[in-house]
Amino acid sequence: MGNLTFRPLPLAGLFLIETAAFEDHRGAFARLFCAAELAGLGLPGPIVQVNHSLTRIKGAVRGLHFQHPPRAEAKVVRCLRGRIYDVAVDIRQGSDTYLQWRAVELTPGNRLALCVPQGFAHGFQALEDDSEILYLTTQYYAPECEGGLRHDDPALGIAWPLPVADISGKDATHPLILAPDGSAQFPGVALP
């Protein structure tokens, strides 16, 4: 009852979690998280923090965020209300899919979650007003280890589905991956 199915996406370590629900005349029941099953996927350590995000404006973008080692984190992201376009970018040094990204639409109705491994930047765009997201993370937030990529970086070429209606000043000022002369300003993240 309420089983989870893990579907690997084309970037190594990135998984879509499909949730089957048991439904009857009373409503529905679904298991949203199972530590044992996630550990089997290689999730590094237990979930230590659960965060909730509310994005009021349709078209707003949050991210792309990550934490550097030794606080690199994996996360499971689920939409509780509204709709989001959820994006993960591979930033692992030496990865065959370095700087490639994948996106999925998460809604309460599709019962999907994204399992984002260490070494990925993560962000999303709200596709409806008042979209709410739940994040389960394997590391505590560490401001001294935080990093970010620009949502509009031409080196990434992320195809956001809506015009960007709002973004924080901090997220808008992350450095570009490539300098104007074409040299790399962002070397990626080296994981232990």
Which of globular, elongated, flat, extended, rod-shaped describes the shape? globular
CATH domain class: Mainly Beta
Instruction: Write the element-wise H/E pattern from the N-terminal end onward.
Output: EEEEHEEEEEEEEEH
Helix vs. strand class:
mainly beta
The largest sheet has its strands arranged as 1-2-10-7-12-5
The helix fraction, in percent, is under 10%
Number of strands: 13
Rounded to the nearest angstrom, the distance between the terminal CA atoms is 37 Å
What is the annotated CATH architecture? Sandwich
Q: Return the CATH topology.
A: Jelly Rolls
**Main sheet record:** 6 strands, antiparallel
Question: If helices are DSSP runs of H or I spanning 4 or more residues, what is the number of helices?
Answer: 2
Rg over CA atoms: 17 Å
Report low-confidence residues grouped into runs of 5 or more.
Answer: none
Number of domains: 1
